[in-house]
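A common beginner's mistake is to predict each chain separately and then try to dock the pieces by hand. The better habit, illustrated here, is to supply every component at once so that their relative placement is modeled jointly.
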Amino acid sequence: MNPTLLEEVPPPRRTPVRGVRETLQRRGARPSGRTYALLRWAGATLFASVVLALVVSLLVSSSQAFGHSGLSFFWSGTYNASKSIYPTGIFIIGTLITTTVAIVLAVPVGVGTAALLSEFAPKWLAGPLSIMIDLIAAVPSIVVGLWGLLVLTPVFAHHVEPFLKKVPVVEWFFHGAALGPSMLLAGTVLAVMILPTIVALSRTALASVAVEDREAARALGATRWQVVRTAVVPGARTGIEAAATLAVGRALGETIAVAMVIGNTYVLPHSLLAPGATLGSAIINNFAEASPGLDRSSVIGLVVVLLVMTALVNIGGQLLLRSRLRVKAA
Amino acid sequence: MSIAVLPGDPGELTDPIGTRRELVRNSARRSLARRRLLGRIAIGLCVAATAVSLTPLVALAAYTTGRGLHALSWGFLTHIPTPPGIPGGGISNAIVGSVVIVGLASAMAIPVGIMAALFLIERRGRTANGLRFAADVLTGVPSIAIGIFAYAVFVEPLGHFSGLAGSFALAVLMSPIVIRASEAAMQSVPRDLWEAGLALGIRRSRVVRSVVLRGALPGLVTGNLLAVARAVGETAPLLFTVLGSQLFETNPLQPMAAMPLAIYSDSTAAFPAAQQIAWGAAFVLLVLVLVLSVVARLVSSRLNRQAH
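With all components supplied together, the output reads:
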């Protein structure tokens, strides 16, 4: 063997292990293995019991209302002491409408933005814009709600809603007076709220598609757009769907901002311009005044309905994600 | 743009082959032109989408900043609210309330969350998967449900609203974020380092403290700061627990003021002076949340630079 070759072998890298050993020897190890195991178990048990307690406590608190009305609670709610009604069905419909409006507005726009930022825009533009959108994702929903209430409401009442009533075909959805607070406004505020999340998550999903996939498409003669359509978007589909699912969950569960702009009337909405109520806004507006007993129990019943809806969306999204991953792995 | 040249000596070309070559070339050219046009339209749509999504986001931030700066003054930050109709007044009680409530929530959620994350790291299998599932489910639970839960376990038995009940609600809200972020951070510590520590005959708890927690520190800081930033801005969990207050209250056993609650009650008040206060509080809250997120980002980008 050539001795010069041996000499050229670099000395073994200083591994962090040495630093580790020094740290550990400097201060003696105390016999605390059992304490550590105990702490670990305590943390896990505490967390699990809180989650369990949350579900059980809400179910117990609402059992009176469900016991009183049975399955009809899911449509007509419960009569309370002052003879006002909590029409669960109307709240569910309101929740579904506002969420649908938000998703229809935010998903195409958000995915388009993500595609531009991750695929087409030059780096000097995409970098700062992405950071900006990531930061805006942290804006608290109360601030979005405040802006919706004080700024968007007059704009919608005087400009957007009268305009939509004039557009042919589209106006079919926009009957009734343009008041400002409406299903449309609530959906728009929700869309603004979920948009940064959709952009940030879809951008990550698009950017994580392998370079080889893009190069293969490029080598077959695809234009830049065709690369995105045929290679990048299919590869990122799972991630984009996960982003949309998360956005749906957030839109369903948002309460405060919606309560500020939806108008809070408890009648079946006949158009997107009609004011209405969602499960979340109804809970916010009624819980404080509800008297203990059946009244409060009915409001907590609304919380349970909302919980079930968001849980279904989230679990559905997780299952979707897992099944896709399994197909990919196979 | 060059089209692939067909093989063959140009001198041998007869007329029909030349025509065919011309046909192929033309159709390729037409196809490329069509595909490029389509691409340009698609990219144009993406640009339009970006403009549409940036407009409300920028307008929201700019409007809050503009109106907020208008309301901001030294007195605004150091005084408590005045009764309706009397000018002046500030949000010092709300700022202090938010800090106390979120501080207590962090003191509850972060140790428990890190311990639970260690449990996930050390123990694989069904129990860990169940816990992970519980964390995922809790992440999706609407914050109002957490608020009502805190009302049921804290406010109803004690008979009065308190800052502590709000802290508990925020801690429940933060814990799944803390758990998943801490787990990810600790998973990034190489397995070799664990094993090296253990091979030296050192107790597990010591290895975790000196190797794992220290190695994962930047990730832990980032994840927990993001959880805190999320908790500061939450309104729904505080509405039926903390209640809100016009007084300067630092005792967490009493109803307290908090910034999101101040914004909510002032924004729905009809007179402009209250709306002014709402904008000021919204701006302060926005700055606080953005500072927390930026610091979290800086810590994680420093971590990435060190790793490379």
